Amino acid sequence: MKINVYQEPDLKENHVDLYYNQMDEETTAIKQYLSAFEGMITGKDEETERERMLKLGEILYIEVVDRKTYAYLKDSIWRISYGLQQFMDKFGSVGFARNNKSMLVNIYHIQELKAQVNMRVNILMDNGEQIVLNRSYKNEFYKYLEKKVTEELK
Predict the structure, then answer these.
(1) Which of 5, 42, 96, 105 places its Cα 20 to 30 Å from the Cα of 141?
(2) pTM: predicted TM-score of the whole model, two decimal places
(3) Which domains are assigned to the chain?
(4) 71 DSSP β-pair partners
């Protein structure tokens, strides 16, 4: 197999193209390896300066604090280089919904939705953490949830 690597300083986003004439064992393995990166982002632990690839599926929610964006996993917090809108544009279709001005929730990690007296909703996450669904995002959030449930049932 021939591999070409090019540096293009003006490129807006890195990409990999795989050309093949037959889907053999080698090509299948490479395709599977590359596919794993489609659902991953880089996270940085601010205390240790360590970086790690985060699978989108392991992220419970994303929050902006002091103009910095953090991905919250079950047992750790990682700084990511996306803004909320940038993240939604790229990964919103895989299960992330906005629940307030500074946060996105992975709907696949919601354990329970509890309605409150003040028209707000508490979101109970897999790790036991409770997050508030703001009233102004409630309709959009429920529409997104309904859309995802409908897609899953097809």
Answers:
(1) 42
(2) 0.75
(3) 25-153 (2.40.50.1020)
(4) 62, 78
